Amino acid sequence: MLAVISAVPFDLLLIQTVNGIVTGMILALVASGLTLIFGIMDVVNFAHGELFMLGAYVGVIVMVATGNFWLALIISFLVIALLGAVIQIVTLRPLIGRDPLNTILVTFGFSLILQNFALWYFGPVARRMPAPILSHFTLFYLDYPWYRLVIAALSAAIIGGFWLFLKYSKFGVWIRATTQDRVMAQAMGIPVPWVLTGVFALGAGMAAASGVLFAPLVGVDHSMGLDWVLKAFIVVVVGGMGSLGGSIVAAIFISLLESYASIWVNPSQAVIVSFVVLILTLLFKPTGLFATPK
Amino acid sequence: MKKPNRHTVIYWAGFCVVMALLIVAPLVLPVFWAKFLTEVLIWGLLAMSSDLLIGYTGMVSFGHSAFFGLGMYGAAAALLIVHPGNVWLAILFGLSGAAGAALFVAYFSTRLRDIYFAITTLIFSQIFYVIIFTWTSVTGGENGLIFTRPHLTFAWFYDARFNLTTLHWFVLAIVAGSYLFLRRVTQSPFGKVLQSIRENEFRTRAIGYPVERYKIVSVMLSGLFAGLAGVLYAVQNEFAAPDFVYFITSGDTVIFNVMGGIGTLVGPIVGAGFFQLLRELMSRIFGDQFPYLIPLGFIFIAMIIFLPQGLLGFARRWLNR
Amino acid sequence: MSEAHTHTQALISVEGLHTYYGKSHILDGVSLHVGPGEVVGLLGRNGVGKSTTLKTIMGLVNPSAGKVMLNGTTINGLPAHKLARLGIAYVPEDRRIFRLLTVMENLRTGLDRKGMTEERKKQLLDKVFTFFPRLAERANQAGGTLSGGEQQMLAISRAMMLEPKIILLDEPTEGLMPRMVSQIRQIIDVLHRDGVAILLVEQNVPLTLESSQRIYIMEKGIVRHHCAASELDVHHAVIKQYLGV
Which domains are seen in chain C, by residue range? Predict the structure, then answer.
């Protein structure tokens, strides 16, 4: 085993580490939205991947219209957050108090609708989204794009900003109170139904932002959400459902492992790594490998 | 023997009428619709198997695409390895494949509950998908496997190709038989315990039932019948493809269940028919390219909110007596 | 026999409430009222429906029949968060403070309201901290780390943050040491002096009789006795009848 590892050139290892962290940060951003929604609303949002995908599409549209990447990011966040709010109000509110199974089914329904809508409206051909920063720097023998590091930094910033928001802002206190004791939060005048809508919208917005950030790395097409949602779910389970810190660590952990695995196998098989991690977690620590009480 | 009460008589009379219609169908319907009906029956079987888990044991599973897919590929294996293809061997191989997957899922079913279980089964069907998709040498990867339909053989005294009608009858016989078997199971003491687990697992366990064992058996049974559906599909269509192992198939199955009415066994079959019919109608009215899943998706969501018992759910108690 | 309770000057008025938990008929036609600034005691054995009455007033439980009125307006069916903003505060049995939030954050949930200036917020906080200096000391500690008595102080303070017209107090002295009980007694008096009405559910009869102006006694989901607190004392036959061991 050691022989195999030492046979890998150090620079390749480092590059894969960087790649793993970059993908991990985006995955963390996607997963945080999911964890947030699940932890606070007990809703498993199947449509999360589609919100990611639609976010990317909106980003592309804004980008084409204005040429400004950052504007694309912001507008996409807002538009998809609004979509999320509408979805929550129209379909999830009536289901409050019913068996949580129903929310899985409804969000699954939306996932189908949104995916097919994207296919129908945007067509099957993938769209390209130019990165906002095109320059590269030299990482060993590679021309490594700065943009990738920017993504990681931005994702970290968004997650960090979000954490601060949760901890210190008024709405953050409302969210935390609602999570702990929905009934007493209501009794304290906190408009719980709107808090829930807000949380869902926030989660949706975060998914959209991840989509826009990720778009320059791959082509934007209607099925890009599927793989991500699956991985995000794995991350959420491995990180401990409802644990924000846990999902972040899990996201990076899994992405790193996959990144290393792609040294030896091709990427579509490297996915197996995340499956293996999931199974091991379920076997030995079903509450989540990295669960922290948050 | 107990004197049959009015309910039983009506039920069986209804059953006979439906069966008669289904038997006669391929003889009177145009080819397209006859095939359509056969396929609805197969999806119905899949949905029925899922109902055992969802409707009776209360365990939502998105893993049925794995069972279905392995049944399909198992049959493919039998038909490709052994010449000439033997339909019973295909069934055997298919069931074994499905059983393997079921065992895997069953193990985890006892350690996880509710949403966690649902998500995990979903991830599992994806695991199987990835394995099948990438293990090209064995499974044909993206392209799947193609084979010829075996003959219908009964020991030594009958051996002939399937034609449209006999294939339909074969499928009908298996699906009807499965239905009767599953009905027997759900009405037996075993089935009653399953339903008790669905209502209140904690209390069932407290009373002293080994809930884990019941769950495992339930998953196994469910997986086997789903696999059987997969075999039938392979036999009917002469190919096996990874698309069916993708979790969307599980999703579709759950949709059939919800639309038809969970906990009725028959409901899911109706749900499957309803869904396929709507799809067919939409593509006829609006054209092939029409994204039929969009309005269907909305109908599905509306049904969950406003008609949670599904089309036949209101008859649940009646059907289960 | 239920008396007519359409007192238009009543702050809170409850008429003919029927509530079920599943098949159990918990409230069987409860009627009572609380005037502005009044302290009204609600006594009765365990399980007669006192807590359920409070919860129904607070909109946390939906009655199947009957009316709940605030200043003459029917408030049935309004969600709890609207009622909190209309001036009804609720301090439940077992306190239910937000355990993972700090003391300050717990208070903030009631403090951060529309129309609250920084000045007013500070005044409110000062008032509460003067009365409960222990809370000031623990301002940045998580609610779950406080002792039982301190949590009760926090629960009441939190309700006070809403500047309510009426506080629904459910068994505030349960499980508290005698020293704390007298503190509760004092805070009830302070609130009364400030013009806040209180509907007090209690098992502690002497405390209730001392603090309240009027008493209702419930049995099996219905009000059996209603009189001025001055008419009763611990040894009164009525007390023995409905609360006696």
Answer: 36-62+78-243 (3.40.50.300)
